Amino acid sequence: GENVEQHPSTLSVQEGDSAVIKCTYSDSASNYFPWYKQELGKGPQLIIDIRSNVGEKKDQRIAVTLNKTAKHFSLHITETQPEDSAVYFCAASKGGRTGTASKLTFGTGTRLQVTL
Amino acid sequence: GEEVAQTPKHLVRGEGQKAKLYCAPIKGHSYVFWYQQVLKNEFKFLISFQNENVFDETGMPKERFSAKCLPNSPCSLEIQATKLEDSAVYFCASKQRGEYTEAFFGQGTRLTVV
Description:
The complex is a heterodimer.
Chain A: E1 4-7, E2 10-14, E3 19-25, E4 32-38, E5 45-51, E6 56-59, E7 62-67, E8 72-77, E9 86-92, E10 105-106, E11 110-115
Parallel strand pairs in A: 2-11
Antiparallel strand pairs in A: 1-3, 3-8, 4-5, 4-9, 6-7, 7-8, 9-10, 9-11
Chain B: E1 5-7, E2 10-13, E3 19-24, E4 31-37, E5 43-50, E6 53-56, E7 65-68, E8 75-79, E9 88-95, E10 104-105, E11 109-113
Parallel strand pairs in B: 2-11
Antiparallel strand pairs in B: 1-3, 3-8, 4-5, 4-9, 5-6, 7-8, 9-10, 9-11
């Protein structure tokens, strides 16, 4: 089955700096890679996702890159703000018509702390 | 509704007691998933449904865990004879039919087995 590794487990940055979180996956059939933000006591919330036919996607201060050959994908947050402090999870699954109900395999999470 | 509603928020059970958790998916979503999040943040997939049919139950500890999604009722996850290691936050998520659709998560039910 799929295995997703995520690094680092904790990350502390100063406000305004960039944060990068990296994930690797094992199953070459995975083709959908969402990133979730989880705040204390809440459920995960999707912040950005990428499909395997795209190498990069950007949404304001957040970007995700995907290297299918190396089975790596990364989350980049620029100009970090205190409200970005949370736990971030990468995930992998098989999207598309035949994979609509495919489960998400999560990474182990990165606790991001943005300090003033 | 526009959000996945999970009840109760907190549940405390003595070891060996039964626990039942509920999930109302977003209206119109055809797929429901249950995940278990343990202390170190790790998410473990339990089971998924396509409408009322089980789609994938490879993550379910079959001896004590069961789940249902019946028409016109919230989905449920039941744990018979709870054990200490069942203590976790259980999340439900739902998705629309369609390619690459977003999974929306509920706020979770924190189960504590004492």
